[in-house]
Amino acid sequence: MKLDEKQYRRRRKIISGISFALLCALFGVVCFYAKPLMELVAEPERFRAWIEGQGLLGYVTFVAIMCLQVVIAVIPGEVVEIGAGYAFGAISGMLLCLVGVAIGSAIIYGFTKLFGYKMVEAFISREKIQSLKFIQSSKRLNLLVFLLFLIPGTPKDIITYFIGLTPMKLRTFLLISSVARIPSVISSTMGGHALGLQNYMFAVIVFAVTATVSLIGILIYRRICRKENQAEN
Description:
Strand content: under 5%
Shape: globular
Low-confidence stretches: none
Helix content: over 70%
Number of helices: 12
Structural class: mainly alpha
Number of strands: 0
Distance between the termini: 28 Å
Radius of gyration: 19 Å
Largest sheet: none
Number of domains: 1
């Protein structure tokens, strides 16, 4: 095995270990508060009252969780977004999600600019990096990034790691990605808000439509990747 390959695998193990430790810590905190929170969740009005009772701390805590979700890309963002809609409402939940995502994205961008390619491959497999190479060399970078973040079902958190390797400036990336994320985030928070109101039929409709659109989005994303990579070759 080449030295470079050994270093790559060692970095992957270290990062995986750190990520697992953070997830375990987060899980421990959740378990510690699970019983009282589950009792509150069973009664939506009490749950909202609890959130409101936390004041600014409740909002800051959620933004931190959303930020962590972006940095540790293995955590499903949709679950957190649904929870935001349930606890804070569709619009407020969406805004909190976008703030958390923006902070997490800025952190990733900064570290990627600082450490370069090695930072990216510590979190993302080389196979996935190769499949995203077309982003780095695209002549229509802004439009391409907007479409990738607009299309439901694309691996947005993984793409975020790759943006730091492109010439795109941070403020441009945050503006484009935040605007493009709005449709997918609002659909999740709307579904979560409907669950909080116990409007289960509407929630099922929202989630069904979102799942269908996401499936179509995945197919479109794969087609874009295939087309762009073929164009490079």
